[in-house]
Amino acid sequence: EKTMPAYDTVTEALKDLKARGFTTDFNISFDKLQCSRTRRCLSPEEFEIVEHHRFEGDSNPSDEEVVYAIESKDGSMKGVLVSAFGIYSDRVEDAMLKKLQVKK
To answer: What is the rounded distance in angstroms from the CA atom of residue 23 to the CA atom of residue 77?
Structure first.
């Protein structure tokens, strides 16, 4: 089990992940991840979350954000998804939500 790097901020995490090749920006689109640049989508079974980093909001711990490092199973796409917890939950398909639920 390799240990994940520890980051102080979301910005720092994103910068380092990009430097490590996670260059695609993903957004959640209901039941898929969508690459904002190419419009290519990945369904939950097409990608793996290789690491995740959790950040609590400074003023409000419930403003938690998670940065996911994501790789498509065919290896053609590596990217990041930043999820502010709670925001998405009503607009995201269950399979996607399950996939993104990282064990504490």
So the answer is: 8
pLDDT in tens, the chain (104 residues): 567 788 999 999 999 999 999 999 998 887 889 887 888 899 999 999 999 998 887 776 667 788 999 999 999 999 999 986 655 556 667 777 788 876 55
Compute the distance between CA of residue 7 and CA of residue 90 in angstroms, rounded to an integer.
29
CA angle 87, 62, 56 (to 5 degrees): 105
Cβ pair 81, 68 in contact under 8 A: yes
Across the chain, which distance is largest between two alpha carbons, in Å? 40
- Could you give the CA distance from residue 22 to residue 78 in angstroms, rounded to a whole number? 5
**2 exposure class (CB count in 10 Å sphere: 0-12, 13-18, 19+):** exposed
